[in-house]
Amino acid sequence: MELAGQDVRPEPLEERRKRLAKLLSRRTKAMRDGIQLIEAINGDGAAIFRHACGLGLEGIISKRLGSRYVSDRTRACRQSLSTGACRRLFPRPCWHGCAN
């Protein structure tokens, strides 16, 4: 993961998000093609997940503030899927809040 030849993986999540926001604020082809940076929501992850499920969303991605990018599974990044999404994605039974 690099920007203008600089490796940004060691930078904290907040700094990488700032860089991405700046990049996408320009009228680039990516913007025209529909790439969007979703606003980060800080707070009670369980409450946010319940709200997302209530809205019919498939789930949420949670990332630890200050975390560095790692191209492997890590406790700093977790995917929580709604029960409905689990049923659609996995033909076998799945538990509520599947972890990535």
Structure overview:
The protein is of the alpha+beta class and 100 residues long. It has four helices and four strands, in the order E-E-H-H-H-E-E-H. It has helices at 13-25, 29-32, 45-54, 83-89, and strands at residues 2-3, 6-7, 59-63, 77-81. The longest helix has 13 residues, at 13-25. The relative contact order is 0.15.
Number of helices: 4
Q: In total, how many beta strands?
A: 4
Summing up helix and strand content along with how strands pair, one would put the structural category as alpha+beta
Largest sheet entry: 2 strands, antiparallel
Structural domains: how many: 2
Which descriptor suits the 3D outline?
A: globular
- Please state how the strands of the largest beta sheet are arranged side by side: 1-2
Tell me the series of helices and strands, N- to C-terminal: EEHHHEEH
Distance between the termini: 20 Å
The mean pLDDT is 77
Rg on CA atoms, Å: 16 Å
Strands, helices and their partners?
Elements: E1 2-3, E2 6-7, H1 13-25, H2 29-32, H3 45-54, E3 59-63, E4 77-81, H4 83-89
